[in-house]
Amino acid sequence: MNNTSCPRVTFHAYGSLPPVFISVFIVGLVANVWGLKTLLQNWRKLKLISVFVLNLGVADILYLLTLPFLVVYYLKKSTWIFGNAFCKITRFCFNLNLYGTIGFLTCISVYRYLALVHPVRLMRGITVTHSVAISVMVWLLVGVQSLPDMFYTKTYGNTTGKCYETTSGAYVEDYLKYSLGWTFTGFCIPFLITVACYGHIAVVLWTMKRTDKVQKQRSLKLLFILVLLFSVCYIPYHVLKNLNLWSRVLSKQKICHEWADRVFIAHQISRGLVCLNSAVNPLVYLHVDEEIPAQLRQLLQRARQMLNHLFRSNSSSGTVAQTTDEV
């Protein structure tokens, strides 16, 4: 540590993030549109948990539609050409996706917990109307938490320049305080609720033999997806985001640490990882709605039949051509 000006490592996010964003955009958009279409086709049969999955898909699509603009931003070597207002909207959509996803995954976890541990109470006390009301509350809470972020400076330059994920160096101290509170309410509390629900579910699955085997498998697969999302996408991003903000505060005070450069690089990597949630979330569809896996199997079966038909047609054509040549 020293009191001189702090040098920063050179790491260009525009070299690594565009391929990730393009892949997530294609996979995530196709998977989420197909999942939402399947849910909406069975609207009259909509179940309690399907309401949360529907909102999960909407949150994903909101973010996915902003990715092409971020691809252009990084391909132009971090030069934002779409204006200050749209920069804030883009970052706001990211936050709605991130914390909306965490909120609705928490709702799904609580529902799974009630369905396995208190099934009678769930059937009697909770309706689709309750699920809709809870979803509206989640959107409102996420919106209220994300709204202050839009009042921080997001761009640098009059027409073209940076589009900050957080804010400029002038307001980084205040933003760190806001980010820590936001992380606690928007991530830590839902994460603890999810861990508590699945911790109890794990105990129930191991101790109660009467639990339905299919329900056990579905719950364990969903647990695996949630562990993947939190351990790969959410935990690294929140830890490294706040550490990077702290290092920026220290750097502004001319207090340098060797770990600051490593945290900066790791945070850039975590930004690529956190956007993967929009491509992984559609896996939740397969394990919370019984009809979606069946429709997916039918779709794959049709595709297999079409490929077999094409293969047989090509084989027949080849045989005819060979016979003609022999004659």
TrEMBL record:
GO terms under cellular component: membrane
GO molecular function, one term: neuropeptide receptor activity
Pfam family, any one: 7tm_1
Annotated compartments: Membrane
Keyword annotations from UniProtKB, A to Z: Membrane, Transmembrane, Transmembrane helix
TM ranges: 20-40, 52-76, 96-114, 126-147, 184-208, 220-240
Principal subcellular localization: membrane
InterPro entries (alphabetical): GPCR_Rhodpsn, GPCR_Rhodpsn_7TM, NPS_rcpt
Entry protein name: P2Y purinoceptor 1-like
Native organism: Lates calcarifer (Barramundi)
Gene that this sequence comes from: LOC108890971
